[in-house]
User: What shape does this take?
Amino acid sequence: MSYRQIFDSLSKVVRFSEAWLVSTTPRGGLQIVQPSHLGENWVKPYSTDFQTEDAATWRALIGNRTVCGEDVWPAGVEASRYYRDFLDGAKLRRLVAAPVKSPVFPGYDGALHVYGTSELGGFADSEVKAITDAAGQIGRDAAAARSSRLMHGDCANTPSWMLRPGNRLMVLNASFKSVLGQAIPDLDERVSDQLYQDARQRLQRLGGEPISSDRIALPDSRGQFWIFRAVAYRNYPALGTGPVLFYCLLPSYCDWVSLRAADFSADAELSRLVPAIHFMSEHFRRGPALGEIARHVHLSPFHFHRRFTELLGITPKHFLLECQIFHSKRLLYGRATELAEISKICGFAHQSHFTSRFKQYAGLTPTRWRKLATKNDDPARGRIEVH
Assistant: This one.
C-alpha cells in the first residue's frame, strides 16, 4: 500500500492544501500516522495536546460518516481552539473528515482529514465523495497489507483461540455511557461489570491529574484474562465536558508483528520503535536485555523504555512475555508437546516458572488453558484468547 499514491490520486480530483491520516491507538487517544512529509511541527503538538480537541475525527467515528467542519463546529472552524492554536498558522479553514476502518491496528479506527484554505473555497459534493471513497480505500488496503504480511508463519492460520473482537476500543464519558455506541463486542458479563467498576474507581482517583493510565487484567467467567490499557482524561473537549475514559483491548502478538515502520510514516520517533518489536519477536527465547534491544534502535535503555511504553501502550518486558505466551499457546494447542519441553522452547527458566508466568498472564494454568482451547475449537462456540 502506498499512501503517497493515494494522496496523489486524491489531489487530482480534490482541491486541498493539506491531508493526513489519524488513527485511534492502543494507548488511548489519537495519533497522526500519515503522510511522511508532515513532520514534527504538526505531529508532536497534535499528539501531546490537540488530539483532545479533534472533534472532527470523533464525530466521523461516532456517526460512521464523513463530516465537514461546519457540521462539527456550527459557529465555524475558526471559533474552535483546534483552529486557533493548531491550524491557524497554515490558514487551514476548510475541513472534511471521513472514517477509516483500522488503518494501523485491527479494531482501532481512524479518519482521513482533508484541509483547504479560504482561497480554495468550500469542498464540492463530488470532492466530499472522493474523500469518502479514498478513506474506504485506505481501510481496505490496510487490511489487505496486514493479511499479506501474516500469510505465512505463526499467524497464518486462525484457530478459535486467536480470534478477537472486531472493535477493541471502548470510550466512556463521565456518565459511564459508551461514546462510540456499541461497547466492545463479546465482552463477558463479568468483564463488563469489572470495567464499569474500574471506571468509577478511576474517576474518583483522577483528582487534579490531567491524565492517568495503566495496564489492567480482568478475568472473565472462565478465569481467563482480558488485558486492557486504561486511560483517564480529566478533560477531553472533543468529546464534551468532563472526564473521559479509554479502555483499549491490547493488540495481539500477531497484530504487533504485522506492524511496519511505514505504518507510522508521519511520526519518525514512533516508526523508529517498530524494528524493536520485530527484534524482540525473533529473539524472545533467549530473553534479550533492555540494553541490547535499545541498541538495536540506537537509543539509550532509559529513553527507549520510556518512549516505547508511552507511544505503544505496552512495556518491552510485557511484549517479550506476550511473545512467550503466544508461542506457548500454539504448542499447547497442538497437544503434541509436554509442558517441560514447551517451557524450554519458549525461553522460560523451567516448567514451574512457565506455569506461574502463564497463569499470571492468561489467568489459567497451561493445562487448564489447553483443555478449554481444544474443547472450544469452533469460532461459533466461543473465543478463547482475547488478550
